[in-house]
Design brief:
- The protein is of the alpha+beta class.
- It has a single domain, classed as Mannose-Binding Protein A, Chain A (Roll).
- Helix content is 25%, strand content 26%.
- The chain contains 3 helices and 8 strands.
- The strands form 2 sheets. It has a 4-stranded antiparallel β-sheet with strand order 1-2-8-3. A 4-stranded antiparallel β-sheet has the order 5-4-6-7, with helices on one face.
- The protein starts with a helix and ends in a 16-residue tail after the last strand.
- The protein binds calcium ion.
- Calcium ion binds next to β7.
- It holds the Pfam family Lectin_C.
- Keywords: Lectin, Signal.
- It comes from Drosophila guanche (Fruit fly).
Length: 176
């Protein structure tokens, strides 16, 4: 009996340790919703942003849905990003059409964009080398727009939490 109780305690401790580890974000990352974010306010081109995220074991962010976008936008505003109505106040995201001209997909996998929230009149390939995608408050809406990859913008890297965290632990939009 004692051995069984001991075994159960050890097993429970191990589970708790695993949960505690998977529930937290790495240094330099901040938890927002069910993701860990690293925000660089230093502007770079898309390729440097993408490479920087990979070096951190992360990827350029992509929104899952409208709630993810709202939570993340609130977090970015709290860090000082203004998102005034202009493409000039963009952040890079993990979407481009470099592998397939004019068909935008996730840069990491080539998969379809989960939440296609383009701002009005975008993508328009106005330049006409607008092969990368950024997020902005642009054309009177928050969403994605296509733009040349060599523009310099701040960027956001994301890592996913892998745990089944209780819903009440997740940050809500009103927390910001
Ligand atoms: Ca455009």
């Amino acid at each position: 009996m004692t051995v069984q109780v001991l075994f159960a305690s050890v097993l429970l401790s191990a589970v708790l340790v695993v949960l505690a580890r998977s529930d937290s974000c790495p240094d330099d990352f901040t938890r927002v919703g069910n993701k860990c974010y690293y925000v660089s306010l230093e502007a770079t081109n898309w390729h440097v942003a993408d490479r920087t995220c990979r070096k951190l074991g992360a990827d350029l962010m992509v929104f899952d849905d409208a709630q993810d976008q709202a939570l993340t936008t609130a977090h970015l505003k709290s860090l000082g990003l203004t998102f005034s109505d202009s493409y000039r106040h963009s952040v890079w995201v993990g979407i481009n059409c470099l592998g397939d001209r004019r068909h935008f997909s996730l840069s990491k996998t080539g998969d379809e964009i989960p939440f296609k929230n383009w701002v009005p009149q975008q993508p328009d390939n106005a330049s006409p080398e607008e092969d990368c995608v950024a997020f902005a408050n642009y054309n009177r809406a928050y969403g994605y727009h296509d733009i040349e990859c060599d523009f310099d913008f701040p960027f956001v890297c994301e890592r996913r939490l892998s745990c089944l965290c209780p819903r009440q632990q997740l940050l809500k939009a009103e927390d910001f």
